[in-house]
Write a structure and sequence with these properties.
13 helices, mainly alpha, 2 domains, globular, single chain, two-stranded antiparallel ribbon, two-stranded parallel ribbon
Length: 235
């Protein structure tokens, strides 16, 4: 799905997310003038999207991986670590930790007082998960820091964060830190404009709602036209 963030609308729904498909659309839309004034592309950590954007728009356009996808990736690591720990626990402790996912991945400001207290109990009972939760908040704080206004500053802070968490010896974060390192330049671009794909995720939910209401759609072109009809107009 290609989204115009300025006008809050879906520009196109593509049949697949292969690079060739995305690149063909971007080149055509740029040539036709629809995307001739693009200055920034926000995306997730999918090589095909990033590669297509770079090839279509060149070095003058900023490619940004937004904080939403970075934090989502981190939370998947935290959830994997929790599940791994659960498998190692005895029956009563395993049952106690089971079903606690939302306590670990929900922002503190969105938790009730009881949930915050329960999380503190878990952090003391399971120190390794507590360390992961604390590092999650430290990473959130970096992205929320409005004093960071340059990619170079963002890279510096993120590298410092990685050095700190790697010193903790938490194997659950090894893969995440590798991902963060590999995409560091694109992630650090977030600090310039705070560009976000949050709207894209909301529109994705809207597209899924179309499928739910129709109990599925086997004809892609019919689905595409329905999506553009519902979400393609300027807000």
């Amino acid at each position: 799905m290609i989204v115009d963030h300025d006008n809050q609308r879906v520009l196109e729904v593509l049949e697949n997310r292969e690079k060739a498909t995305v690149l063909a659309y971007l080149q055509r839309a740029k040539r036709d003038g629809l995307l001739a004034q693009v200055v920034e592309v926000t995306t997730d950590m999918w090589d095909a999207y990033v590669g297509a954007a770079r090839e279509a728009f060149g070095a003058d356009v900023t490619i940004t991986i937004d904080r939403f996808h970075v934090m989502k990736n981190f939370q998947e690591c935290l959830t994997a670590a929790r599940r791994e720990l659960q498998r190692q626990l005895s029956g009563p402790e395993r049952d106690q930790l089971k079903g606690s996912r939302w306590l670990w991945v929900t922002n503190p400001e969105n938790q009730s007082r009881e949930e915050q207290q329960q999380l503190q109990v878990f952090k003391q009972q399971f120190p390794s998960l507590g360390q992961l939760a604390d590092q999650r908040e430290a990473l959130r704080a970096i992205f929320a820091d409005r004093q960071i206004v340059k990619p170079s500053e963002g890279r510096k802070r993120l590298r410092a964060w990685m050095a700190q968490v790697q010193g903790l010896g938490l194997t659950a974060l090894d893969r995440f830190c590798k991902t963060l390192h590999n995409w560091l330049d694109e992630i650090a671009n977030y600090f310039v404009s705070r560009g976000s794909n949050g709207r894209t995720e909301g529109l994705n939910h809207g597209l899924r709602a179309i499928l739910w209401r129709a109990f599925g759609m086997v004809n892609f072109q019919n689905f595409r036209l329905r999506a553009l009809h519902c979400f393609g107009s300027v807000s």
